[in-house]
Design goal:
Blueprint (H helix, E strand, L loop, with lengths): L4 H5 L8 E2 L2 E2 L1 E2 L10 H14 L9 H21 L7 E4 L2 H16 L5 E5 L8 H10 L2 E5 L9 H7 L4 E7 L11 H10 L3 E5 L11 H4 L3 E5 L10 E5 L1 H6 L10 E5 L2 E4 L13 H15 L3 H21 L3 E3 L9 E6 L4 H10 L2 E2 L1 E3 L4 H6 L5 E5 L6 H18 L1
Bound molecules: pyridoxal-5'-phosphate.
Amino acid sequence: MSFDVDALRAQFPILDQQVNGKPLVYLDNGATTHKPNAVIDAIAGYYRHDNSNVHRGAHTLSDRATARFEQARESVRGFINARSTDEVIWTKGTTEAINLVAFSWGRDNLKQGDRVLVSGMEHHANIVPWQILSAQTGAELVPIPVDDRGQLDMAAFTDLLDERVKLVSIVHVSNALGTVNPVEAIIEKAHAVGAKVMIDGAQAVAHWPLDMQALDCDFYAFSAHKMYGPMGIGVLYGKRELLEAMPPFMGGGEMIETVSFEGTTYNTLPFKFEPGTPNVAGAIGTGAAIKFINSLDRDAVAAHEADVLNYAVSRAKDYPGLTLVGDADHRAGVMGFVLEGAHPADLGMLLDQQGVAVRTGNHCAMPIMTRFGLTGTVRASFALYNTRADVDALFAGLDKAKTFLM
Ligand code: PLP
């Protein structure tokens, strides 16, 4: 299998449009990726033919919807190489998955004097739930420092590891810096002191194959919309023995076995954590996104993505007045930068006028912005349909923006 970027782009109808009179150059994939026809059609097809509530199989449509919903869960299981579909919990996304672990596992397992380690480069989704939990339990949230190139200080991490640490919750790929954290080493070191490990995989999942059994993390969270799937759905992977022992996060229909006013017993995994009507179309769309990704030569995709990102970084390093924010040895998908004399928000607006979509601001990662003495950056983030020509358009857009600003 080879990699034909033009053929691939043709599968994403949204890319074929003009924005502000210019061909769209979409470099905001860290926020969300676009959806191929296969995903759009799967969702429309579900609503056209199978729409029904699931797990209430009184009729054929409900049976079909349930079968497709559970097939999608099996697709996720295979995609991340979990042992069982019992370990695949549907959530609204990464944010809900982390909150689920914080307020189910965390409330049960953390107490005064315990510590949760996160990195200094976390998205707010992997900071705020732990802060809320700390206020309730007395556990302490401790950030692992980040060096000037945006890499985790592994020596400091090792120093912080002791018997007080009950959980290390760490981002796999930083959405602000693009840094790929050495999660394998982190998991091994954390486990050696008896801590559990949660990985925020929101920015990793689209870029390379994941293998939960090889990784041996305790929890892993991701969102479908950042891997060519729909919004409003994501996954919490958790090791079965942990999920079995955890109390429900939310109560309602579907997550129970029996209910009486004397007491309630809960459903088995994974349903114990899925109260209420789930996002069936979202699950089916996620299954279609996985099928789409699996139809590609993933090594070729990774090589293409690395080529485009490396090209962008090398052009950035040559660009007068530009400073990269985050320049890790191992990076993926994201390039953050500031330009001397230009506010990121102004640059974003001027780039948009050129048809170039980037994100500006703090990227829901204020602590790492503060670490670098900034309030925000411009972020170009890349997906498999981006090309070197898109990078050229970004820098041509910056040239033009400079004529307005300087
Ligand atoms: N973690 C990281 C690293 C992210 O980049 C994001 C979204 O940008 C999230 C968590 C939150 O994901 P969601 O908004 O899909 O729940």
